[in-house]
What does this fold into?
Amino acid sequence: MRQTTIVTHQKTDKQWYIIDAEGQILGRLATICASYLRGKNKPTFTPNVDMGDNIIVINADKIVLTANKEKNKIYYHHSGYPGGLKTTTPSELRKRRPIAIIEKAVKGMIPHTKLGAKQFKNLYVYAGSEHKHEAQKPKKLEVK
It folds into this structure.
């Protein structure tokens, strides 16, 4: 008889990974980040436990959007009041806050629950090539 291994958050082994976003396509990068944040790359994946890894994304300002998404894609935000719909494009968002493009893409790919919010906090995005997590000795993760 086989035993099903139940993994708890105390037994998880969290790793640190670093991804260089320079020249990478946004969707491909976001799917890999979301998969590692959830822990789906591990053989002991349990959907109700935060067993994902910590991801550091550098050079977020150099991410690539294919086709005409830089001008045609629209991000919506509503204040909750009548007439409170606000829109922005990735090119405008890149000027104001370049890390928000990757954060929005990854946040949409993880569960919209309390667990998903906890997993999203393990994502660290930086616009430049410098980051403050050298002490964790992150492993380089290649995106194809």
User: Anything to note?
Assistant: The first helix runs from residue 26 to 38. The chain has a mean pLDDT of 94.
